[in-house]
Amino acid sequence: MTLTPVTVRRAIARMASGLDGPLLAIVLALTGIGLATLYSASYDTPARFHAQLLNFAVAFAALWVAAQVPPQTLARFALPAYLLGLALLVAVAAAAGTLGAPLLLVTPTGVPAATAAELARLRPKSVVVLGGSGVVGDTVLASIRDIVAAP
Asked: What is the model's pTM?
């Protein structure tokens, strides 16, 4: 048995296998522009920049893992994954229908006028928000509280 020494070049080549070089360069450039913009906009609050940097690191790790999966395997799981997502949507709609509650949508940064008007009209006693802080920000939650609490 012969042992082949692992060089840095070989290790990088192995890690980059399965990745599309030009596409990766474009994604990294856009990521860099986004991070630079966020850094300049949130200079006084570096925690936001660091949180986004961590989000990008997790996303790139997921990208690398997904790039290691053969396309045939991804194709085999595409339909079941789609059907699972569809089933979850139906389950949420059914739960809302059972409770007699409407499904109202918000954006990560605000409450659309139609949603705000419906909340003001319904005056609900409680609001169930589905989604983490990356999907529904604190400002959106505060807006919903203000709309529901308004006389």
From this structure: 0.52
